[in-house]
Amino acid sequence: MNNGKLLVFSAPSGSGKTTIVRHLLAQPELDLEFSISAATRELRGEEVHGKDYYFMSITEFKKHIKADDFIEWEEVYRDNFYGTLKSEVERIWAKGKNVIFDIDVSGGLRIKHKFPVETLAVFVKPPSVDELKRRLKERSTETDDKINMRIAKAHVELATAPQFDTVIKNYDLDVAKAEAYQLVKEFIKE
Fold first, then answer.
1. Alpha helices (runs of H) in 9-104, residue ranges in sequence order
2. Confidence band for 130, pLDDT divided at 50, 70 and 90
3. What pTM value is reported for the model?
4. Which of 82, 105, 114 shows the shortest CA–CA distance to 6?
5. Nearest-5° angle of CA 113, CA 114, CA 115?
């Protein structure tokens, strides 16, 4: 497994990483394709199996772990597993494209560790934890308990920012998008 570039975008939930990744995917000159993660959680809102995630049962996910089918995986919350299938990266590289990830902090760092030269690991930093909480509540997709779990995890995730290649401060979304574009454009040229 080694053909293209791997562009990892990680951040606490609500930081804006998904919006930035969608912006980058809309730039055809970057030749990017989204890596669809596998997940055991329930679909949210308008999500679609095979587009947003490969939704799996816990049993199915554990079979893939046992078969060593993942580049990385993690039990993010109790019985909520997420992972990147090797076949997903191979599929994208076979098309001659670069892989972009919208992935949790631990998974992003694991990819960087396994593919240090091919990977640009970007941490998207939110303006504040209070702003994260406001954004998560505004989504209206999760219970207060789930939001509180995400906020508690955000404190731990924010501490990992120095382990990434670069940090984008998402205080102004347009500025963050432009910064991400420049970083990716320069990295894929290497």
1. 17-25, 58-66, 86-94
2. confident
3. 0.86
4. 114
5. 95
